[in-house]
Design brief:
By secondary structure, this protein is an alpha/beta fold. The protein folds into two domains: 88 residues, Nonspecific Lipid-transfer Protein, Chain A; 283 residues, Rossmann fold, CATH 3.40.50. It is built from 16 helices and eleven strands. It has a seven-stranded mixed sheet with strand order 7-6-5-8-9-11-10, sandwiched between helices. Helix 3 runs antiparallel to helix 16 and helix 14 packs antiparallel against helix 16. It is elongated and about 70 Å long. The termini are far apart.
Length: 407
């Protein structure tokens, strides 16, 4: 009863939230003044006690295992973690030490980075084809209107990046962490450049090469199974890195920036798109363990410092935080529409795990400390940049002529 009274007291202190909790004794209590946004079912007190000792790890675990059931808006439950008094959610020093050593075990050395990338991106192209857009962009889209569909918003993102790079016909673009090749294909079609894309993911390389053969772009785009540390010293007019820096790791940021600087000709332009935390801290332990091992989200200040040390000069910074929330909401809807097919591919536990991941990420952009930065830079000094941002908006992105997916 002390546990139940404690939870009841804690829930009553949460501002601006309306929800219901069904306790293990069958009693259901409503909190807040509005219609409940979700029902939280707590099945037994022992699991709740364990959860409270390490909520950042054990709440997702309890949800995935079915010990905690959420009916309704999962994101609004996750929002409570940002609304609660932080003192209630502190991790004890021993737990912090264990998390630190677990992070060391997943360091992004050359071999470790390949293993970490494979853990997430090599689950099978068929899985990602089910719920990503038709070009398989797995990064923040760009919504010129909140009503844009995902395919349009992702095309607009690709165009926005290419415009920031100020690509000209005949130039060479290096795409570090090229994913399934969407940016490379767009840059070739719309800006008449040639592209080298690199990724440590075997699945991504296989699909890229198949896609290039079918689209006739294989002579203009080369995709390599390669780590950024394996890049040869060859000059590129532009460098793009979309959703890649998150996988570099804190201790490897200097090496990454040095590799970018070596690859970008003096005066050349680059764009980083990355998720960033407001303050320097470890990634949520559950995400780091099950979803993105080796992930580190550098604060903007740390990123700027490491760029400056490598001779990369920032010329423009744009925060697309609300765009990532919209992107994730679209992914969640598409994921749920395909959940039965995903369950057949994997199992119920996998579906709950990825549902938790996608909703936790979305909640972090809506209510937490995550930002999505597009950072435009040059290698060394350049006085050729436009005085205003008008050049980014004078030509809209053309939509792909076909919605057919290439296997």
């Amino acid at each position: 009863m002390n546990l139940k009274r404690g939870l009841d007291s804690m829930f009553k202190q949460i501002p601006g939230a309306s929800f219901s909790v069904q306790y293990w004794d069958g009693e259901t209590i409503a909190y807040g003044e509005e219609k409940p946004e979700f029902l939280l079912r707590l099945r037994d007190p022992s699991s709740v006690r364990r959860l409270l000792r390490d909520p950042f790890m054990r709440l997702p675990d309890a949800y995935v295992s079915g010990q905690v059931v959420v009916e309704g808006n999962l994101q609004r439950l996750l929002r409570l973690g940002y609304a609660l008094d932080p003192r209630l959610l502190r991790v004890n020093p021993l737990r912090k030490a264990l998390l630190y050593f677990a992070t060391l075990a997943r360091r992004n050395s050359l071999r470790g980075a390949r293993d970490n990338v494979s853990h997430h991106y090599d689950r099978g192209n068929e899985f990602y084809e089910l719920w990503l857009d038709r070009e398989m962009n797995y990064s923040c889209a760009y919504f010129e209107d909140a009503a844009d569909d995902l395919d349009r918003a992702q095309c607009q993102k690709l165009h926005h990046i290419c415009k920031k790079l100020r690509l000209k016909p005949g130039q060479r673009l290096l795409d570090i962490g090229c994913g399934w090749g969407a940016l490379a294909a767009h840059a070739v079609r719309e800006f008449d450049v040639s592209v080298l894309g690199i990724t440590p993911s075997k699945e991504q390389v296989a699909r890229c090469q198949s896609k290039l053969r079918h689209s006739g772009l294989d002579g203009r785009v080369e995709v390599r199974l390669q780590d950024y540390r394996e890049l040869e010293t060859e000059p590129f007019d532009a460098v793009a890195s979309v959703g890649m820096i998150e996988h570099v790791g804190k201790s490897y940021l200097p090496a990454y920036m040095a590799a970018v600087a070596r690859s970008l000709r003096p005066g050349g332009t680059g764009v980083f798109q990355l998720i960033s935390q407001t303050h320097e801290k470890a990634v949520a332990p559950w995400i780091s363990k099950y979803i993105f091992p080796g992930m580190y989200l550098p604060p903007l200040g740390e990123l700027a410092t490491e760029m400056a040390r490598a001779g990369l000069r920032i010329i423009d910074v744009e925060n697309l935080r609300p765009h990532y929330a919209l992107t994730l909401d679209a992914w969640i809807e598409r994921f749920e529409n395909k959940r039965e097919a995903i369950r057949v591919m994997f199992d119920d536990r996998f579906v709950r795990m990825w549902r938790m991941y996608l909703n936790a990420a979305c909640a972090a952009f809506k209510y937490g400390e995550l930002n999505l930065w597009q950072v435009t830079f040059t290698h060394g000094f350049s006085d050729r940049m436009p005085l205003t941002r008008r050049y980014l908006y004078d030509e809209p992105a053309r939509q792909a002529p076909s919605t057919r997916r290439v296997a």
